Amino acid sequence: MTFKELSEKRHTIKTYLPNNTISDEELQKILAAVYLAPSSNNLQDTNILVIRDQKLKEEIANDFEGFNTQNVKDASALFLFVGTPFKMQMLNNGQSIYDGTMKFLDIPEADRQKMKEGVLQYYGVMSDSTDLVHIINAAIKFSFTMLAATELGYGSTPMLGMQKCKLEKTLINKAMMKQGQQVILALSIGVPAPDDARNKAQANRIRLPFEETYKIY
Question: Which tens digits make up the pLDDT trace of 142-154?
Answer without folding.
Answer: 999 999 999 999 9
